[in-house]
Each structure stands twice: as structure tokens, then as C-alpha cells.
Amino acid sequence: MDTLGAIIGPAIAFIVLAVFAGNFRAVFWLATIPGCIAVMLIILYIRERPRTVKGRVEPPRLSPAAIDGRFRRYMLVIAVFSLGNTSNAFLILRAGDTGITDEIIPLTYILFNVTYFASSTPFGVLADRIGMRTMIALGFLLYAMVYASLAIEYTPIHIWILFSFYGLFKSMSDGTQRAHLATVAPEDMKATAFGIYHMVVGLFLLPASIIGEGLWDGIAPPWNLPLRQYHGAIFSFLIFSLRKERPPH
């Protein structure tokens, strides 16, 4: 449902930009409407069931000894990959560089989300067959190929193809990375592990985006941005594929 909304949203943006001649303010104002509706639905209709807890529950202790080595290594992979990643906004900027107009750019994002939506279940089934680590590693490689291709001067048709391949990467990695996290997290710290995962992503994605913005604005030529992300994906793939995991005791 989340991805379905990500398809409908850019479709509405495309219509608004076409009707109002590139009026981005109208798009931003319209975007507040579903956000307000979502907040009101949560306030009016979402209720948590009360839970009865027997005895006193101690919060988990976040110490190196309490965290499994497999989980630490996986967080290293996620940290390195996040440091080589940046906002999807740079994909949109790259699309504009090739001559795709502002009114048409939402359609490229629709293609990305449609591909993501259509391929998520098949790749999930495949991950169950070949293993989640293998699927994540293949996703890293596809990510590297997409961003390495962005370093080349391409025509708009190539951007459309790369957006669809980027959707394949998201479907290969998005859910699989979280599913694999559940297998390497300590049994009594599952929720804590997911919190650490998103903390690591946020901590490293912020400087990655700042560095990416600096590269894009002229500290280095624009092609250095996809080249840096290419290296980040390859380095993550090497760590993830060459490190043999030992089964938990």
C-alpha cells in the first residue's frame, strides 16, 4: 500500500504540473492534504490495545557483549553502504540534466515505483530460495551498475531505463535487508536491533547527502557523485560476500 501511494502521488504531481504550467507551489500545497488526513485518521480511529505486563521488565543493555558479532558486521555493511548513498533527489537532478522537463520527471518516479511494486513479491520469493545474503549482495551490484551508468552522458531514454533498474534494486534490497536483520539480531533485542539499524542509516546517510550536495554544486565534477556511490556499493558487496557467517550457537 505504501508503494501504491508512491505511484499515485507522482501521478497527481504530473497532472498538477501539466495543468498549472510547472507550478511547484500548488504541488506542495496539495501534498499537505493527504498528510493531514493521515494524521486525523490516526487520532480518530487508531487505538492501541492495553497490554498486561507481569512483573518488572528491564530494558535491554546496549553493550558490545550483548550484541551478536553477526549483527555488528551487518551494521558495518549498512553503514558503509549508507555512506556511499544519497537522496533520490540526485536521480531527479540527473534526469533534468539529460533534458527531461520538470513536468515529465514525475513520470520517471512513477516508473521507478511501478517497477518496485511489481517486482517486490517475485524477488521476495527468490530471496527465500537463494538466501537473503545473496539477494542483498546482488542488489548492491545492481545499485553499483545503475549509478556507474549515471556517470556517463546519457539521453533521456537511458534515464528511463535506469529508473526502472533502480526500482529493481529497491525491490531486491528494501525488504530483504530488514528481513535479514531479524535473523542476525539477538533474540531478546529484535525491536532494539531495528532501532539501531535505522539509527545507523540516518547517521551515515546525512553526511553522505551533504558530501553529495558539495560534489554536485562544484567541489568536484558531477560525475564524481555517481562514481562515489559506485565505489560505496562495491565495497559493501565485498564486505558482505567475502565474510563467511558462522551459524549462531
What does this molecule look like?
This protein folds into two domains: 1-48, no CATH class; 64-242, Growth Hormone, Chain: A (Up-down Bundle), CATH 1.20.1250. Helices cover 75% and strands 0% of the residues. The chain has nine helices and no strands. The chain has helices spanning 2-19, 24-45, 69-83, 89-97, 105-130, 132-150, 156-184, 190-219, 224-242. The longest helix has 30 residues, at 190-219.
Provide the residue-averaged pLDDT: 81
Number of domains: 2
Using the CA coordinates, give the radius of gyration: 21 Å
CATH structural architecture of the largest domain: Up-down Bundle
CATH topology of the largest domain: Growth Hormone, Chain: A
Short description:
By secondary structure, this protein is mostly helical. The chain has helices spanning 2-19, 24-45, 69-83, 89-97, 105-130, 132-150, 156-184, 190-219, 224-242.
Features:
single chain; 249 residues; Growth Hormone, Chain: A; mainly alpha; 2 domains
Q: What is the strand and helix layout of this fold?
A:
Blueprint: H1 2-19, H2 24-45, H3 69-83, H4 89-97, H5 105-130, H6 132-150, H7 156-184, H8 190-219, H9 224-242
Helix pairs in contact: 1-2, 1-5, 3-8, 3-9, 5-6, 5-7, 6-7, 6-9
